[in-house]
Amino acid sequence: MFKLSLSTLLLLLSAEAALGFIPAGVSSKPSVRLGASSSSSSSDDLVDCLVLGGGISGSTLAHNLNKNGVDVVLAEARDYLGGNVKSHRDDEGFLWEEGPNSFATQPSIVRIAYELGISDQLVFADESLPPWVNHNGKLHPLPKGQGGKGPAGQIELVSGQNGVLKFAFVGDLLSWPGTIRAGIGAFLGHAPPPEGKEETIREWVTRVLGEEVFLRCIDPFVSGVYAGNPETLAIKASLSKIRRIEDIAYSIGWNKFGALFYGGLKRQIELTKERKADPPAPEWPEFEYGNPGSFREGLATLPNAIAKDLGVGDDQKIRLEHKTTKIEKKTNDDGSDYYEATFDTPKGTKTIKTKTIVSTMPAHCISDILEPVMEESKEIFESIRKDIDRVGVYYPPVVACTVAYPKKSFKDVELPNGFGNLQDLPGFGSLNPRSEGVRTLGTLWSSSLFPGRAPKDYNLLLNYIGGSRDVGLADLSEEEIVAEVDKGCRQVLLKEDAPPAKVIGIKIWPTAIPQYELGHLPIMEKLEKAEAKIPGLWVCGNYRTGVAFPDCVTFGYEKAKEVKSFLAAQQGQVSSPEKEEKKVTVQASAPAQTEAKSKEEEKKVEVSTTDVDNVVEPTIDESKEVAERKIPFFMTEKVVKVPEKVKSKGYI
Ligand SMILES: Cc1cc2nc3c(=O)[nH]c(=O)nc-3n(C[C@H](O)[C@H](O)[C@H](O)COP(=O)(O)OP(=O)(O)OC[C@H]3O[C@@H](n4cnc5c(N)ncnc54)[C@H](O)[C@@H]3O)c2cc1C
Questions:
Q1: Residue 23: pLDDT above 80?
Q2: How confident is the model over 294-307, as a mean pLDDT?
Q3: In this model, does residue 438 exceed pLDDT 50?
Q4: Which residue range is the domain that position 319 belongs to?
Q5: Which of 102, 147, 404, 516 is found 20 to 30 A from 374 (Cα to Cα)?
């Protein structure tokens, strides 16, 4: 939701605008048992790759596989492609989203739009529009640079019209002590990370930038991105690119106290080089990295175009209303193996045979489906984490409620930093820290972001409400939810006499966004090991490779290459590979590692495929720099204090 605004919060955030991707897990698998064609009777009805789940991850993967010449079938349980991406337009001229509202533009998105012939429908927001934070009855702009412009963007983020300096010295979101504390962490240094302990987002931000930055900037942001609880979300799993800036900061020889700013700057320089080395194709439309984007008729334009391109129907590549119930591994008479997936469909039970499978179904519904083929499935997807009271990967409920009000009913106030009148909604949206007593997590100012979203006299607002800290929301009726949303809009944006909300659309997602909480990475590591034992099967999705829309699109691009080379290796296979000592490269595992890593930071360990059970994965923190981290003389605490609970007037 407010992923994009992350880049505005601190100096490090400019790196966030570069959502890159390296698939977690085994980068190439041993091609061992799947025979490509030794049984002619069965190979005739074998597809090369079966993709399960047709959200953005699955549909973009199917597109890329097809483009690479792989014979692909995608099976989706619902009657449409797109998963939680759904856009609508009505006769009055409102266009709204039921799921994600926008993406932080990345090359993978522009590339696929170009390939599908929809790049002329891409729309981008005005990059300078800030997210606003509601605090003490006022809206405060978060600093905003031009994230995609490398070091120049970093400097702009510091000293621009809505830069960090203005935020610190003129703005009043942070108190003076809060500003000084954040400045020390950013420019001088902070306590080093605690040893042997996974930090939550709250602990990390408080240690590095102080509690006030956490409460007023990061807490609402985390609600906006994950609908999550920063006291259970693990920083390394959920905000890995931000967390990594700290490691980069420490890697600068003289920066012994890990001051974050210099890490952010170094990362920006790296990013600029990486982008220069791998520039966008000249035929693509121009774009700024990280800039909020969508399509003229909404995000569903992308899956709709994929459905049209691949074809939908029982003899086509896209099979809708195919709910996977089971995945099995079977053996032909000639000894070659294949996979068979079973589906519930409106026409009864069906099966599809395939050489390879990629699951992109959500983690909360796959343990039974996978069990016949992955014996550790239940242990992984139903693992209990007592300390945070979770079973498996948690998906809290979130409601997307879109309402409209006449422009005149918005408060007639001038906003700071020359952004103009609130009635024009000059911004990305408004975030509500949990301490402000507004139940809505964040309100996106949809009609300000992209053209043609509302008739000209109206402002259109997409409100996200619910999440990990307000699960009770799912028990409310639609009327009650609308009443809460309307109340929130009045608290923050509207005049007292504003008319009732014009409800444009409401969508309740009972299991919305996977939470990368404490213990998430070890679960993913177990999955990676279990998966490595089943060549030709990949178990993926936004719970593993990143929740943001661009993460899912980039996954679709990268995973297609991996599947293709797996199939190619199969075809070229001459001797029995089970007897061969193939090498597999295992990367430090994490959804955390969905970003492009600089070469020297990639820690790779070579293991024998026969040894895959005993892989010891390195962790990113086991670097030389860790040992050299110093406790700043101006910080007394050796171990980070667990901060006090937020005193909430809200719904924690
Ligand atoms: C309310 C909301 C707001 C968001 N806002 C943003 C935003 O503004 N920006 C952003 O970048 N990201 C946002 N996100 C995150 C992003 O949209 C998602 O992470 C992404 O769309 C997930 O895509 P996916 O394909 O991995 O998963 P999904 O969309 O969940 O797709 C999984 C698919 O698997 C199917 N499936 C399930 N079970 C079976 C079965 N048994 N057999 C076959 N198919 C099955 C499902 O029907 C579904 O279509 C938001 C998410 C939500 C929910």
A1: no
A2: 98
A3: yes
A4: 46-82+311-392+515-571
A5: 516
* CATH number of the domain to which 550 belongs: 3.50.50.60
Mark which of 571, 589, 617 sits at the end of a domain: 571
- Per the domain annotation, does 488 fall within a domain? yes
* Two structure tokens written together for 501: 């909300």
600, pLDDT greater than 50: no
pLDDT at 39 over 80: no
Residue 175 has pLDDT above 60, yes or no: yes
Distance 85 CA to ligand 1 centre (A): 7
Alpha helices in 54-149 (DSSP H): 56-67, 107-115
Q: What is the per-residue pLDDT for 603?
A: 35
Q: Which atom of ligand 1 is nearest to the CA of 512?
A: 53
Establish if 549 belongs to a structural domain: yes
For residue 146, report the distance from its CA to the centre of ligand 1, in Å: 28
Predicted confidence band of residue 634 (pLDDT cuts 50, 70, 90): low
Is residue 82 over pLDDT 60? yes
**Which is the closest atom of ligand 1 to the Cα of 323?**
42
User: Each residue of 451-485: pLDDT tens digit?
Assistant: 999 999 999 999 999 999 999 998 999 999 999 99
Give the residue with greater pLDDT, 573 vs 130: 130
**Distance from the CA of 18 to the center of ligand 1, in angstroms?**
21
Question: Do both 367 and 324 map to the same domain?
Answer: yes
> Which H/E stretch holds residue 605?
strand 604-608
**Measuring from atom 49 of ligand 1, which residue has the nearest CA?**
83
Residues 399 and 477 in one domain: yes
pLDDT greater than 60 at residue 645? no
Distance 547 CA to ligand 1 centre (A): 8
Percent of the chain predicted with pLDDT > 90 = 71
Sequence-ordered alpha helix ranges (H) in 68-175: 107-115, 150-159, 164-169
User: Where does ligand 1 bind, in terms of residues with CB under 6 Å?
Assistant: 1, 3, 52-58, 75-78, 83-85, 99-103, 323-324, 360-362, 365, 398, 400, 509, 512-513, 541-542, 547-549, 552
Virtual torsion, Cα 595, 598, 599, 603, nearest 10 deg: -60
Spacing, Cα 56 to ligand 1 middle (Å) = 7
State the closest ligand 1 atom to the C-alpha of 444, by its place in the atom list counted from 1.
8
Distance 368 CA to ligand 1 centre (A): 20
Packing angle of the helix pair 260-277, 240-251 (nearest 10 deg): 100
Average pLDDT of the chain is 83
Distance in angstroms (rounded) separating the CA atoms of residues 489 and 141: 17
Count CB-CB contacts under 10 A for residue 515. Answer: 26
Residue 646 lies in a domain: no
Per-residue pLDDT at 629? 67
Mean pLDDT of the 502-530 span: 97
Could you give the angle at which helices 549-571 and 107-115 cross, rounded to 10 degrees? 70
Q: What average pLDDT does range 264-281 have in this prediction?
A: 91
The alpha carbon dihedral of 637, 639, 643, 644 has a sign of negative
**End residue of a domain, out of 571, 600, 617:** 571
What is the count of structural domains for the chain? Answer: 2
Nearest residue (CA) to ligand 1, atom 8? 1
Contact 274, 21 (CB under 8 A): no
Q: What is the 3-state secondary structure (H, E, C) of 398-426?
A: EEEEEEEEEHHHECCCEECCCCEEHHHCC
Output helix, strand, coil percentages for the chain, rounded to the nearest 5: 40, 20, 40
- Is residue 490 assigned to a domain? yes
Report the nearest atom of ligand 1 relative to the CA of 365: 38
Q: Do residue 372 and residue 478 come from a single domain?
A: no
